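S1.2 Input.
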Amino acid sequence: MPKGLYKDIECGTYSGYQRHYRLEEPACDACKAGAVEYTIKYYHKNKNKIKKNPAYKARKHRQKVRRRAKLRGNRAETYTLKQVLEKYGTICYLCNADIFMDAPRNCTGKDWQWGLHIDHVIDIQYGGSDSLDNVRPTHALCNLRKSKMKPPSPCG
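S1.3 Output.
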């Protein structure tokens, strides 16, 4: 049992799971189960609030991207969509055409392929950072086509 701040936290709860995380140790099975149970209860209790909040999905996606970057040992910093657009504008950096800001950002609806996606210039999986310096605005279709290309060769 850890000393100090975490001494009163029991295993098998969400707090126990957080304690393991903060102490940078693997979580026990009881704490994993407690965290899953807590998450499911929270979701069902707040389902309407979560689904109606348009920023919820974007926030969860950003958390996932930052986590992936950190797991690979890459730099991850916080930035907003507003900062990206202020710095780089609304021109697709891959094809140099205007991005339709009214088009849907997901792959549904009319003209989705000309909608805004934020692309990592050097993908996280190839060692790129999740930072404002490594992201650019693109069309959805340009971004999806780029992801199908082979990674750049280290030899040039």
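S1.4 Remarks. The chain has a mean pLDDT of 83.
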